[in-house]
Design goal:
Elements lengths: L5 H11 L31 H9 L11 E2 L2 E2 L1 H11 L8 H4 L4 E3 L9 E4 L8 E5 L4 E4 L8 E4 L3 H6 E6 L5
Antiparallel strand pairs: 1-2, 3-8, 4-5, 4-8, 5-6, 6-7
Length: about 170
Amino acid sequence: MVRLGPVVILIIAAVSGGCASGGRARPSPFPTPGRHPATTPVGGSASGSAIAQLAVSFVGTPYRTGGATPAGFDCSGLVEYVFARNGVTMPRTVAEQYRVGRSVRRGDLEAGDLVFFHTVSRGASHVGISLGGDDFVHAPSGSGEVRIEHLSARYWDSRYVGARRIGSAN
């Protein structure tokens, strides 16, 4: 993986905007696990690190408004897809995703936690998946592809809304 300097990341982040996905498009094929509420613990070997690893595997996947498959993701579509592949059905929109799970303090973030930002409107309008520490993976519309960024980057730090832990994935 190519590591970009903080100035380059800041510039890219500044133009990358958020997704504020409100669409309910669900292109096929889409994984259809058993119906588990979002608060149900991830079963089997799935864990926060498994969720994070799967999310990272999509780095470079193109951004697509309403996208929820490896052919293209928007921010909430990436979350919905990754959690579904780990046995947890998630709501489709950022606002709905912000209402599930339990709140997590920024200093207590673990891999697999969801991190939320206000980018195009007040309140949570963009979501990513924490990799633990300062890193998160997300599908920003401005960069055109799924990428890893730092919560401490000025753009994301100033727009941070909060974090949620889904079930006992962590």
